[in-house]
User: Which sequence fits this backbone?
């Protein structure tokens, strides 16, 4: 019996003979000798239990069964080609769903630019973005519920692959009425006496500790730590005079009553690293990681990454219910 792989080859030979109605010319077209071609057709006929060509006359002709097989063979070979194409695209990460964790402080223009770029490069790939803290992403990566995370360094996860990193310098956000807002840049030591607005330590322990360590090393020991899980709440606390916050400039532009100033010497740099499980990683992960960190590093993530008029549909970006990993 003809195997599945052999069947496609035999059908290809059959269609070539059916098109030429001459074994010699068909063999030349296929680039093979005539005897193997004749043997292939005979084997196909034995397997199907029908005669495909009428060889009783000088010029061969298709039988009724052969006429029927022409359309069926074309359809089957086209389906096989589609199958191979789909599997190749899936293997290259151009199909399926890629589940990615992103931080809540990721600016909207950054998300827009990233999705536009991926829509251009892999239009058949569904990107499932999930708004999660660093701790939540690490937990879901460990249970294979995420394919890739974009998390804040430093982290200690030796079982994860650490991909490219985006470095974004942070400045200080303070009320526009503050005397420090008149300065072109602010020393960390100038913030002495102020409260500091930070995400809860449980959301990103390594980053939380790093920020406080840098502050104290530069002469700023916050009078009090106020916690804010999202940027809107953090900006609200700063606006109310309840502290200062360290953010990238693009996030502070939305509120005209606040001022953003760079820190002298650039001591605080927010580093976002792409991480994923080393075993059975989604094929699209390395490409997505490279694109995501490059756009995050661009800070403002300029929008014109695809031609005007490109309109791609993506899955909804949603947020899981916050879960305290220490609970």
Assistant:
């Amino acid at each position: 019996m003809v195997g599945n792989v052999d069947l496609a080859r035999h059908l290809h030979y059959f269609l070539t003979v059916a098109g030429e109605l001459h074994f010699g010319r068909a063999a030349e077209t296929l680039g093979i000798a005539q005897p193997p071609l004749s043997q292939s057709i005979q084997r196909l006929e034995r397997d199907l239990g029908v005669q495909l060509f009428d060889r009783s006359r000088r010029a061969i002709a298709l039988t009724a069964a052969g006429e029927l097989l022409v359309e069926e063979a074309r359809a089957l070979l086209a389906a096989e080609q589609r199958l191979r194409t789909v599997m190749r695209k899936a293997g290259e990460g151009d199909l399926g769903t890629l589940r990615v964790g992103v931080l809540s402080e990721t600016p909207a223009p950054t998300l827009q630019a990233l999705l536009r770029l991926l829509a251009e490069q892999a239009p058949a790939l569904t990107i499932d973005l999930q708004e999660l803290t660093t701790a939540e992403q690490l937990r879901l990566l460990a249970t294979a519920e995420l394919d890739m995370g974009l998390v804040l360094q430093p982290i200690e996860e030796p079982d994860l692959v650490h991909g490219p990193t985006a470095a974004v310098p942070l400045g200080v956000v303070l009320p526009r009425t503050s005397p420090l807002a008149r300065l072109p840049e602010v020393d960390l030591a100038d913030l002495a006496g102020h409260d500091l607005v930070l995400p809860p330590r449980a959301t990103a322990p390594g980053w939380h500790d790093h920020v406080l360590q840098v502050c104290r090393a530069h002469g700023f020991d916050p009078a009090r730590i106020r916690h804010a899980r999202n940027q809107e709440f953090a900006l609200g606390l700063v606006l109310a005079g309840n502290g200062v916050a360290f953010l990238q400039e693009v996030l502070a532009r939305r509120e005209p009553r606040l001022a953003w100033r760079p820190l002298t010497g650039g001591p605080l740099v927010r580093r976002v690293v792409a991480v994923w499980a080393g075993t059975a990683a989604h094929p699209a992960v390395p490409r997505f990681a490279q694109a995501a960190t490059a756009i995050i590093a661009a800070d403002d993530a300029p929008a014109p990454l695809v031609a005007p008029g490109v309109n791609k549909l993506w899955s909804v970006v949603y947020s899981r219910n916050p879960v305290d990993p220490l609970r």
Summary: The longest helix spans residues 64-91. DSSP finds ten helices and 13 strands in the chain. The chain has three domains: 4-91, 96-167+270-319, 171-267. The first strand starts at residue 53 and ends at 54.
